[in-house]
Amino acid sequence: MRDKKDILFDNDGVLVETEAWYFRANVEILKTMGIALEEARYREIMINGQSAFYW
């Protein structure tokens, strides 16, 4: 067995841009609860360091 010596970190946007996928996932889950999430509201929530589930 090989010893692991390396750790790879991906701070969002460095290797993969996941923000659009994360937004879409939030929209889909909240939709199942009858909540519509607009992109402008989502950005406001994220800028304040909150969760889209903090309503």
Would you kindly provide a written description of the structure presented here, covering whatever features stand out?
The protein has a domain at 21-49. The radius of gyration is 16 Å and the shape is elongated. The model has no long low-confidence stretch (mean pLDDT 85). By secondary structure, it is mostly helical. It has two helices and no strands.
List the helices and strands and how they pair.
Blueprint: H1 19-32, H2 39-47
Write down the overall mean pLDDT: 85
DSSP strand tally: 0
H and E order:
HH
Task: Supply Rg.
Answer: 16 Å
Proportion in helices: 40-55%
Keywords:
elongated, 55 residues, mainly alpha
Structure summary:
This protein is mainly α and 55 residues long. It contains two helices and no strands.
